[in-house]
Amino acid sequence: MGRERGRGVIRKREPRWQSAAERARVAADLIEEAESLTKTGGVASPADLERDTRPPPLRIPPRPSGAPVPTVPEPAPPVAPAPAAGGRAAAEELLAELDASVAATPDDASRLVERARALAAGGRYAAAGQDLERVLRANPSHGDALVGLGALLSRRGLWADAVSHLRRAVALDPGRAAAWSQLGESLNHLDNLSGAREAYERAVELEPRNSRALYGLGIVLDRLNRPQEATHMYRRSREAAGR
């Protein structure tokens, strides 16, 4: 029988990740173990709308040779399965109050944005979009409405339309980390990798522990054939999302 070294077991070295898709898949798995990457995306506002509602990132399976590198996992609609009756009642009660408030003050942009947030949280995206567009018709520079509508357009796959709203949002308020992160995701889907990288880097500069922006930046770096930097961003994303 072979000799033991210090009663320890010589472990086989872990294999290194071999491809961009494998790095992305492992990063997604690690992030999923920590928590869902949902605390920085917004629909009707950059901070509140989808907090604690979206599922963890999608696992990215190994891709065939020649297939495109996967993009940042697309967030699923925040529709909880079989919500409790009490939760539904509370949501409907809130919407009824907001409806009454909007009816009493139809030009109050903050109330319209708040109602759009509640509508989107319940999966009623078309109605939410109508409220946001109504705000923007009266005030084209309303930051929350611009970010919210950009996120809603992204959900519909209208990336170019989303980018136009998000670019205006960050031009008006360069300090909106969530807007920069959403802009990075939209540009990535349009294969504007240099623009996506700049947007994600700006989001991370503003919020160094923005796990979603870090993860998105890792995906973009992978697509730019910079695997070591991508791996570093995946690691930072996992740590940012950790407990």
Description:
With 243 residues, the protein is an all-alpha fold. The chain has a single domain, classed as Serine Threonine Protein Phosphatase 5, Tetratricopeptide repeat (Alpha Horseshoe), CATH 1.25.40. The protein has 10 helices and no strands. It has helices at residues 20-34, 85-104, 109-121, 125-138, 143-155, 159-172, 177-189, 193-206, 211-223, 227-241.
How much of the polypeptide forms β-strand, as a percent range? under 5%
CATH class: Mainly Alpha
CATH homologous superfamily annotation: Tetratricopeptide repeat domain
Which value, in Å, is the CA radius of gyration?
21 Å
Report the uncertain regions: 2-17, 33-67, 69-84
Largest sheet: none
State the share of residues found in helices, binned by percent: 55-70%
Total domain units: 1
Work out the helix count. Answer: 10
Please provide the ordered H/E string of secondary-structure elements. Answer: HHHHHHHHHH
The CATH architecture designation is Alpha Horseshoe
Features:
single chain; 243 residues; Serine Threonine Protein Phosphatase 5, Tetratricopeptide repeat; 10 helices
How would you summarize this macromolecular structure in one to three sentences?
The chain has about 240 residues and is mainly α.
List the helices and strands and how they pair.
Blueprint lengths: L19 H15 L50 H20 L4 H13 L3 H14 L4 H13 L3 H14 L4 H13 L3 H14 L4 H13 L3 H15 L2
